[in-house]
Specification:
There is one protein chain. By secondary structure, this protein is an alpha+beta fold. The protein has a domain of 175 residues: Calycin beta-barrel core domain (Lipocalin, Beta Barrel), CATH 2.40.128.20. The protein contains 4 helices and 9 strands, in the order H-E-H-E-E-E-H-E-E-E-E-E-H. A 9-stranded mixed β-barrel has the order 1-2-3-4-5-6-7-8-9. The chain starts with a helix and ends with a helix.
Length: 261
């Protein structure tokens, strides 16, 4: 009995330790490899034509202009863009004409509004990941936006569902070394990507994991029965910054708006 108790005691200590080792630590600052990426699996760069996944990057990519749109729509829609229903394609056309005319009416960044989900995960400037046992927080340098992924088993309440936000409400769990995240309660004033509109029924599923040391991948699937004819998928990849390149700057967007007046 004594030996059996000793074995059980050792197992009770070992199993949590093994779980802790199996759960990756995403903590750190990351910069995107494909900030405006396509809806496809990223390919390794050809020799001499891109950064290798060595973690020895010389610094973050240059920051784009604060309110520069990714595209004004003058070239039409990319073949990789979300497939919109006729109703939401008509909305996109309204936005496109406005942007082509030079208006910032539908430019959320120019209004200092958060980028929203899943656009936030493009992380055009950079992001910091802060991880604890029960929660992971993603902080975007763009407009100081953040989102929290709860890992403690909580579910969105009806109050949460009735009060949508730009980041939405995210809950997650681990499947081996992969963080699986579901996001609901997303504000209709945001965009799927670029300026593709969505409805209040949009939901997002992510599978986040390290593909190699310091290289983080986020596989995103967007579902919206009102706005999309089929789910839209994209893959984002980020490289973890090394010491000296791991400090994000304050965006201070409202201050910039004041200076612009």
């Amino acid at each position: 009995m004594t030996i059996r108790k000793s074995i059980l005691s050792l197992l009770s200590l070992a199993i949590p330790a093994l779980y802790a080792q199996a759960t990756p630590d995403f903590s750190g600052v990351y910069y995107p490899l494909n900030p405006f990426g396509a809806a496809a699996v990223p390919q390794a760069p050809a020799a001499g034509k891109g950064p290798a996944a060595t973690g020895k990057e010389k610094g973050p990519p240059p920051r784009p202009a604060q309110s520069a749109p990714l595209a004004d729509g003058s070239q039409g829609r990319s073949p990789d863009a979300p497939s919109l229903t006729p109703e939401y394609m008509a909305k996109w056309e309204v936005i496109r004409k406005s942007r082509m005319a030079g208006s910032s009416e539908y430019d959320n960044t120019a209004k200092c509004l958060p980028p929203g989900m899943p656009a936030m995960m493009s992380m055009a400037y950079g992001m910091e990941v802060m991880q604890t046992k029960d929660k992971i927080t993603f902080f975007s340098e763009l407009n100081d936006a953040l989102r929290r992924v709860y890992l403690d088993g909580r579910k969105p309440t009806q109050k949460v569902l009735d009060d949508p936000t730009y980041a939405g409400y995210s809950t997650g769990h681990w499947e081996g070394d992969t963080l699986v995240v579901d996001t609901v309660a997303l504000h209709e004033n945001s965009f799927i990507e670029g300026f593709s509109p969505h409805s209040d029924a949009m939901t997002i599923k992510e599978r986040i994991r390290f593909t190699s040391p310091g290289l983080l991948e986020d596989r995103i699937t967007v579902t919206d029965p009102k706005a999309l004819t089929k789910p839209w998928q994209t893959v984002k990849t980020y490289r973890k910054a090394t010491s000296g390149n791991d400090e994000l700057r304050e965006f201070a967007c409202p201050e910039g708006l004041g200076d612009a007046k």
